[in-house]
Amino acid sequence: MSDQPVLLKVDGPIARIVFNRPKVLNALSVDAADAFLIACKSVAADKENRVVIIAGEGRAFMAGGDISAFQGPADEVRRHVPTIMEPLHEGLEILAGLPQPVIASLHGAVAGAGMSIALSTDLAIAADNAIFTLAYSKLGTSPDGSSSWTLPRLVGLRKAMEIALLSDVYDAPEALRLGLINRIVPAADLASETEKLARHLADGPTFAYGQAKALLRGSLDNSLHDQMEAEAKAFGACIGTKDFAEGVNAFLAKRQPTFTGK
């Protein structure tokens, strides 16, 4: 096992960003946050990638930030926190802006920054042993990692207030019911089921996925009129792709399309 805090593994069209501090349940440190940003930039620069997986080594996806780094005089902690938060936020913003779908593959503890990262992705698949808690209020602080933006969009404002203020713990079935994740699989099957989902997306119309992703992420900030204008513009852009022509021809010929992401 590499001693790098974050691993970037590329397998053809699939890129995997893997948190790799299993001895501390992948707690986010300065080095891990910096490595995460580097991995996100690398993924964004590689035009062959068609889907991105975010995962964690060991017994957990991520149990939160490295709390030991937050101990000490307030001025010192205040200077230290941005060294973790800023690269994390920049990396998450890169992933949100990618045309490729981003999948969270979740198991064990999904807490604090780990839950924030999971909420930020486009799709989330969880093992049946996954446990979710936002946890920030238990430390006497407010959320980061974009969760204050994503959470109310996923579950509504009232439920988001409950999750953020109470820091309750949710098992995988409850996370599914709330809309925090898309599906649950047996823990032993998480890797294979994540791979299956990623391969399905990698075989899809990547450009169209990117347009849909941008439309959905921007929809709550638009008026109805502006959103429909954005839809028309995105549809027009899709018309110019080889995948659009292939999709139309395959539908009319009653066959499965073969998309290339172009």
Automatic annotation (TrEMBL):
Recorded GO terms, molecular function?
catalytic activity
Q: Which InterPro entries match?
A: ClpP/crotonase-like_dom_sf, Enoyl-CoA_hyd/isom_CS, Enoyl-CoA_hydra/iso, Enoyl-CoA_hydra_C
* Endpoints of the signal sequence: none
A single Pfam family it belongs to is: ECH_1
Q: Which PANTHER family match?
A: EG:BACN32G11.4 PROTEIN (PTHR43459:SF1), ENOYL-COA HYDRATASE (PTHR43459)
The record's similarity note reads: Belongs to the enoyl-CoA hydratase/isomerase family.
Protein name, as recorded: Enoyl-CoA hydratase
Species annotation: Afipia broomeae ATCC 49717
Q: What is the lineage of its organism?
A: Bacteria, Pseudomonadati, Pseudomonadota, Alphaproteobacteria, Hyphomicrobiales
